[in-house]
Structures are given as C-alpha cells and as structure tokens.
Specification:
The chain is α+β, with helices and mostly antiparallel strands. It has a single domain, classed as Ribonuclease H-like superfamily/Ribonuclease H (Nucleotidyltransferase, domain 5). The protein has 5 helices and 4 strands; from the N terminus they run ββαβαβααα. It has helices at about 45-55, 75-80, 100-110, 120-135, 140-150; strands spanning about 15-25, 30-40, 60-65, 85-90. β3 (about 60-65), α2 and β4 form a beta-alpha-beta unit. The longest helix is centred in the C-terminal third of the chain and has 16 residues, at about 120-135. The radius of gyration is 18 Å and the shape is globular. About 10% of the residues are buried.
C-alpha cells in the first residue's frame, strides 16, 4: 500500500528587500534598471543612499515617480530632496501598481524564483540578482514593462 508523503518545511523567514528604479533616457531611446539589495527592511537612509548613487551615476535632471509609501514621505527623505535641485519627484495615485512599470520588472525577476527552495539568503540573493540582471539586460523586456503599465509616459 502507498504511504502518506511527509513534507518538511524549515519555516524560515529569510528575506531580501530590493530598491529598484526603471530609467528612460531623454527621447526614450535607452532603458535602464538599477537596484540595491538589502537583508532587512529598507529605511529612509537606504532610500537616500540609493538616490545619491543615482545622482552620481546619471547626468542631468532625474524625474522620479514613486508611490506614496511612508518611507518616501519621511522627514529625512524630504530634507534630502529639498537640497537636490536635479531631483524632481511625483507620486503615483494611492495604491496604483498597474501604473508602476517597476512592478512588472519584479514580476519578471521573481518568475524564475517560484517553486524553488533556497538553503541560504545568499543563494536566494544570487539567483535574484541573476534573474533581475536578465531583465536589466533586455531592452525588449524593459520596454514590455513600460508598455504593460497604464502609465501615459509618451
């Protein structure tokens, strides 16, 4: 007779938090994706450091559209933004993931992770970096993320 299978689960709650931004060059000729990985919840300091990195890496004015999350409205982030004339911030309407093309980047990136088991956070991070790198390296995939969103960007 058959035996009932025994499934084991470690009940671990390892996680990786990611800050990401999809960029569009002037004229819409080139798309980019930048991300930073964190082993804990992202704080205002990580948001500021990420924006600082972008300002140092990308030339010209940066127009950022993000959600109205608490972290984006913190005193520290507001103070940082006040001193950055190259940064221009707009907000998506409340809970509007269908407008955010980065949501599609996450969907593409996490697709490779489904139905996989990771022994360590490092192993999961390596796989996630590789998966998001595949999206980042494809202008076609990045364009599909923008096209899939309902953001009227042109």
């Amino acid at each position: 007779m058959g035996e009932t299978p025994i499934l084991r689960h470690s009940y671990r709650r390892d996680k990786i938090s990611v800050i990401g931004i999809l960029t569009v060059s002037p004229g819409g000729r080139r798309l980019g994706f930048y991300a930073r990985f964190h082993s804990d919840n992202v704080t205002s300091l990580e948001i500021i450091e990420f924006l600082r990195h972008l300002l140092g890496h990308l030339a010209g004015h940066l127009f950022v559209i993000w959600d109205g999350g608490k972290i984006h409205r913190s005193r520290q982030v507001k103070a940082f933004l006040a001193g950055q004339p190259r940064l221009h911030i707009s907000r998506f309407p409340g809970y509007a993931p269908e407008l955010n093309p980065v949501e599609q980047v996450w969907t593409h990136g996490k697709r490779d992770l489904s139905n996989s088991v990771y022994e360590t956070r490092e192993h999961m991070g390596k796989h996630l970096r590789r998966s998001l790198g595949r999206v980042r390296g494809s202008q076609r995939l990045l364009q599909s993320c923008i096209d899939h969103s309902e953001l009227p960007w042109r």
